[in-house]
Amino acid sequence: MRISLLNSIFLVCFGSLHLAYGQNIDPECACNLGNLWLDVVVVIDNSQGMGHNGLNEVAADIATVFAQSNITQVLGQTTRVGIVTYGGSAVVKYNLTAFHDTNTFISTIFDVADKPTTDTASYIYTGLAAAQTVLHDGRANGRRDNVRQAIVVYASDYKSQGQDKDPVQLAQQIKEDGIGIITVAFDQFGSEGVLAGLAKLATPGMAFTNKDTDLVGEIQRNGLCQINCFCPTAWTQYTSQFGLASARRFALCLKLGDIDAMWTAAKIACQHLDNSAYLVSEFDEAKHNFTYQFFKNESGIPGPYIYHIGLSWDVSSQQWMWEQYVNQAKIPLSGSSYAPWNPGEPTSPSVYPCVVNQQLAPDTNPGWSTGNCYTVSERYACQLGACDTDHYCKSV
Q1: Cα separation of the two ends of the chain
Q2: How confident is the model at residue 191 (pLDDT cuts 50, 70, 90)?
Q3: Which CATH number fits domain 5-227: 3.30.1330.40, 3.40.50.300, 3.40.50.410, 3.10.150.10?
């Protein structure tokens, strides 16, 4: 299937829904393309295998992917883009400081596509290595060190040059440095090996193909916007499944309190970590299970496990309420059907108004138990909103 520029532009206009804070639903990562803030190197296979027509289609796809981005050298919620081409060897066409506006980038990408190499070889290792250097140089003197980095590779073939230049090992090193890799297999001849090879290089969940019906949307929503959704240092991102690299990210970060505290003190301690932090909420079973696995993995203490969560009895409204960040209205538990109370719970809220997640026995799932807000000392879990296109983090 050819990449359709008109279809891609139409699909871009309908982004994914970003669920709002203040609801009984954990927020998804925002994907406001105009507020994307990344440093990206586009790596294009311009060998003979790609061909002039293929390069032109790739250029159209790249132009559409970045059409709504604010490409500039100005600091803030902006994106910088560099361009690398490769065949038998790689060439840095434009570094991260080259483009000052989006229109210039779009016209330039088509100029690059008009100049295919005569190389018959297509060694992706060379393209990745060049992109790694461009990103490293773009961080000179700490410039934009709060910004996530990404490499987007468009390849018509996948070939290794042996152990010394193994693209899988290089890609692993790049990803360990916190750089996301998005791959697009431009398969013109039905070679399944291209997609399989590129998938080994990509960040889990970010390997795409020109056969995808919504390629632009996939690259934007499931690639760039996911990379642009991250947590500050020492915080762990909430995902659809704990410990799964390809799990979908949510716009929430978790952190454990490493020492026991009463519920009231734990609440204040979370708020003092960051003015948007608060005791963790559990709106559904997925979040409940993630928090438990996170605590079990990170706390370093033996079970059965018990820890404070952000649920307490609100005297003024006479109902159970979830904590939110400072000056944000609390969320009623009644807005959700999920309430995994332990047997016999909740007890009298006037006596035991604060809630812990408690595993009653080593072989049981944890549930909610009530307790005194001042006399029950346990570990606790805090959460805050992730950095994403709706939440710019000046420092991380």
Answers
A1: 41
A2: low
A3: 3.40.50.410
pLDDT category of residue 116 using cuts at 50, 70 and 90: confident
CA dihedral (125, 128, 131, 133) in degrees, to 10, reads: -60
Name the maximum alpha-carbon separation found in the chain. 79
State whether residue 38 is helix, strand or coil: strand
pTM: 0.90
Of 321, 360, 362, 361, the residue nearest 342 (C-alpha): 360
CATH superfamily for domain 236-385:
Mannose-Binding Protein A, subunit A (3.10.100.10)
How does the average pLDDT of the chain come out, rounded? 92
Share of the chain above pLDDT 90, in %: 81
Inter-CA distances, 147 with 31, 43, 218, 230, 394, Å: 16, 19, 21, 10, 9
Amino acid at residue number 201: L
Burial 264-283 (b: 16+ CB within 10 A, else e): ebbbebbbebbebbbbbbbb
